[in-house]
Amino acid sequence: MSAQKTSASRTKPVSAVGAFIGFVGFSALAGLLVTIGVTPAIAVAGVTTTSTIGVFESLPEYIEIGDLPQRNEMYAYSGGKSVHFATLYDQNRQELKFDQISDQLKNAAIDGEDKRFYDHGGVDMTSLIRAGVGSIAGGLGESGGGSTLTMQLVRNIKMQQALELPTKKEQVKAYNEAVEQTIPRKLEEMKLAIGLAKKYSKKEILTAYLNIAYFGDQTYGVQAAAQHYYNKSATDLTPAEAASLIAIVQYPEARNLSSPKKYDANVARRNVVLRSMYAQKNLTEEEYRTARQSKPADYVHLTQPSQGCRASVGDGSQFFCDYAKKVVLEMPQLGSSQKARDTAWRNGGYKIQTSLNIDLNAEQKRLLNTYDNKAETNMALGATLNSIEAGSGRIITMAQNKDFDESLKSAPTSTSLNYSVDEKYGSSKGFQTGSTYKLFTLLDWVKQGHGLNETVSGAERTVSPWTICGQTDYTAFPVSNDAPGEGGNWSVMGATAGSINGAFASMAQKLDLCDIRDVAKSLGVHRADGDELQYMNPSAILGTNEIAPMTMASAYAAVANNGVYCKPIAIDQITSPSGKKLGGQTKDCKQAVDPAFAQAAVYAMKGTIRSGTAQGAQTPDGTQLFAKTGTTDEADQIWLVGASSRVATAYWQGNTDGRKINLRHFSNGVSNTYAGARADVWRQAMTPINALYPAGPFTDPQQSSIRGNAKSLPNLQGKTADEARSAISGAGFTYVDGGVRPGTGEPGRVSTTSPAAGALLSSGASVTVYTSDGSQATVPDIGGASVGSARSALNDAGFTNVSLTEDYAKGGGGKTCKVAAVEPAANTDVAKDAELRVQLYGDKNGKAPKDCK
């Protein structure tokens, strides 16, 4: 006994009893259709219709063709023009209008599936009775039991409706019901087909059928099928190509053209369709013969669907594509609720113009491929470059060293995690920003009236107390610098260029940690995992929060834009399936920090590139740039974020698996260690950006921002400790006794201070005063003096251990026996009992004269 067949390739055994019941059922149905007058009157003997009419009349009458899921197309910019770069869809389908579909294809569908399509009212009595008789022999026939194209359309619509249900369980249940081949299901299918025939024209029904039918290998509709299997449009198909497509629809998995193994099954049915086309006089004898003799290998040119972000055009655009898709699904242009937006996107047909510059993005991807090896085995190395336009927030690039792959078992060189964005959009939880976070302390420093030339201590020490939201907090925070020799006093300008941790801890002590947090938040800074920014622990000022690279790029873009922050924008325009412009993401900008504060921060961070930790980042075009580097304690996360006045770029590289592997310890295989190459990479990334986005100079800050409310420390040298204390207190500073040190002058008098005289200090700043023990004297300048005069001058200064060297300098003439040099040198402070060695001039050859007194 043969198997019952459906368009979904479902099989179901049919017993002899079942076949007989099927025949009786179909006979009853045929009589029913005659009785209710929906087909031409055909006499069917022995038909009983009474019980069947009740069932038939209880069924719904109409089903809507509706909008079929189509492709959504994404566009980016290349060479100053909008270009298509990605196709996204729930189902691989592109709808065509009736006139766009090949006549050969329309003829193949009608001749092969429903010869009397133009004559019946949705149900074909002749085919129905033939199917009923055929069922006795074991099945419902090639067309699923006398199914017309209209009936098949009903089934496909119900299958499509099933796939649009919210849960997988609901989808499976509804889909199975849609393809179920029972008498009640057949009755429903027929009545709905009759309703379709009443409501829609034959052209509309045929077009809908050809656009909705499934052609196997995840391909829906004739256009997608023609593109996939033939690499051509369904507008212009040969008879063989058209018949091969129609041959697929009844058994889409067994007869599709995705593999030569399926060619024989396709050809067998294709030739049946061709014979029908010839019989209906839609092919000449020569056309028929040529088509039958052709082999699928002659016309199949399998083309993988270019759908999904993984297939997007442009090297490295895949992560941005995935982000942009998620952003679109939040936009009200697609609907007022998430369910409505999801449905709209699934139905498709939208054109999305994004902000991405595909050329710049590809260049940044090339840089990352070169300098941040995606196949690195010493660590799980990730790296991103993100560029954002200042003044608009438009995302220009979003490049990543790993390749995009959403499969469950991706290669080590690939990932589905988008390291550039928040967890909500890319499943990455962000990374500690290191010293790039110091920008926010710097901004608050200037905001609170301090200046860039103020002096602060950069010493490594345990720092306490702090001010947190107006309250004094005594948390002890041990601060260490990144390299030896970074202690001592620093101007804020110098501390910014050198990224001195101790100095920024000193600055933060004079501020409120809550204010620093609020400055960061005003510039759009937030944790990638959605939690609140950490600020209670003083270590936060040095960049312990995990933040997405794009967030940091946006904050720096705001500083470059005179303090105006603009939320990131990925979507410039959405065009509806009907061609209506719906608009893009609304430009959302605000004055986050005062322009004067932003200008001061830029002024300081220009020094980072000029002479600080970002040396080598300056582009050869001379564009004014500012930047800030960032390195975590273990150097497992490395940053460089900066900007021109037009575009900000954030470069991040680091461990992505939580381990603390030092990027300073591994070579990138090109020019340096991973960490050591950041300035070079950032410069190369910014150079083409500057060419496309020419940037003007920054506005220098006013002198008040450079000096702030600081006062100059007076010269206290030689004063008594009490006099120094009084002067320091009177200037608004805090006196700190540094104790007695070896020094010159009268014992107990001030020898030095830290900071030194002339330093600009803020109110309350500590001044350490060191007094002299009087054990030192200053070597006088005795150059050119006679031996006797030199001895006298040195003795008068307090030095008692004076000797003449046995070597003589070349002199002669009037220089003979005069002082050529003294060691230690003149004007040096030296212990009074130290030996001073005096060198004299000899003759013109440097030989000793006869007598020098």
* Helical content band: 25-40%
Strand content: 15-25%
The major sheet is characterized as:
5 strands, mixed
Termini Cα gap: 136 Å
List keywords for this structure.
853 residues; alpha+beta; 5-stranded mixed β-sheet; 5-stranded antiparallel β-sheet; 28 helices; disordered N terminus
Walk me through the structure.
The protein has 853 residues and is an alpha+beta fold. It has 28 helices and 34 strands. A five-stranded mixed β-sheet has the order 4-3-5-19-20. A five-stranded antiparallel β-sheet has the order 7-6-24-23-22.
Chain-wise SSE layout:
Layout lengths: L2 E3 L5 E3 L2 H21 L13 H8 L14 E7 L2 E8 L14 H11 L11 H11 L13 H15 L4 H12 L3 H17 L2 H11 L9 H9 L8 H10 L3 H4 L7 H17 L5 H9 L2 H4 L18 H11 L9 H10 L3 E7 H14 L9 E9 L5 E6 L2 E2 L9 E2 L7 H4 L4 E2 L5 H10 L7 E3 L3 E3 L2 E3 L2 E3 L3 E3 L9 E3 H7 L2 H9 L3 H10 L23 E2 L1 H12 L3 E3 L4 E5 L5 E3 L5 E3 L3 H17 L14 E6 L5 E7 L3 E9 L22 H15 L10 H5 L3 E2 L8 H10 L3 E8 L8 E5 L5 E2 L4 E7 L3 E3 L8 H11 L4 E8 L9 E5 L5 E3 L4 E6 L12
Parallel strand pairs: 3-5, 8-9, 26-29, 31-34
Antiparallel strand pairs: 1-2, 3-4, 5-19, 6-7, 6-24, 10-17, 11-16, 12-15, 13-14, 18-21, 19-20, 22-23, 23-24, 25-28, 27-29, 30-33, 32-34
Summary?
Helices cover 36% and strands 18% of the residues.
